[in-house]
Amino acid sequence: MNSMEIHQILQHLPQRYPFLLIDRVLDYTLGESLVAIKNVTINEPFFQGHFPHRPVMPGVLIIEAMAQGTGILAFKTGAAQPDNNSLYYLVGVDNARFKHPVEPGDQLIIEVKLIRTARGVWKYTATSKVDDKLVASADLMCMKREIPS
Predict the structure, then answer these.
(1) CA–CA dist 120, 143 (Å, integer)
(2) What Å distances lie between residue 60 and 46, 57, 78, CA to CA?
(3) Residue 53 falls inside a structural domain
(4) Could you tell me how far CA 83 lies from the centroid of its own chain?
(5) Which of 15, 96, 104, 109 has CB atoms 3.0–4.6 Å from 20's, for a disulfide?
(6) Domain-located, residue 17
(7) Domain that holds residue 48
């Protein structure tokens, strides 16, 4: 079983607080799949306004957490190594579905599977679950791009 703790994750993702949304990688298979977790706490800054009377994790942040999972898988696989001249961007989201709200105290289990790579575009299928209940799914496309100078 291949796992990663937060210090290893920080070596593979450029995101930092408050936008780092992966707390631990439970398992990964290079070039194939990854399973990660996001512990959702009431201390998240977005809960102050979304929604104060009934906090719910925004769907776009669930998509972002899944995209960060794809980034770790790509970086570990070796085809999208981070450097100072480029970034690994989310370039497409298809078939996004949200089935249940994610609330403080939930643990989001994020699963990403590489479907294919073509012309530098990596295509994944991703799901997020809480307590084995599907809360979100999407097809994600990502690509390493040079940073304009």
Answers:
(1) 6
(2) 11, 9, 27
(3) yes
(4) 19
(5) 15
(6) yes
(7) 6-146
Provide the residue type at 120 as one letter: G
Rounded to two decimals, the pTM is: 0.94
Asked if residue 1 belongs to a domain, the reply is no
In one-letter notation, the amino acid at residue 142 is: C
Residue 99 lies in a domain: yes
Check 7, 12, 50, 53 and give the catalytic one.
50
User: What was the pLDDT predicted at 149?
Assistant: 76
Name the maximum alpha-carbon separation found in the chain.
46
φ and ψ of 134, to 5 deg: -65, 125
Per the annotation, the verdict on 12 as an active-site residue is: no
Task: List, for residues 65-88, the tens digit of each pLDDT value.
Answer: 999 999 999 999 876 666 778 888
Look at the chain and report how many structural domains it folds into: 1
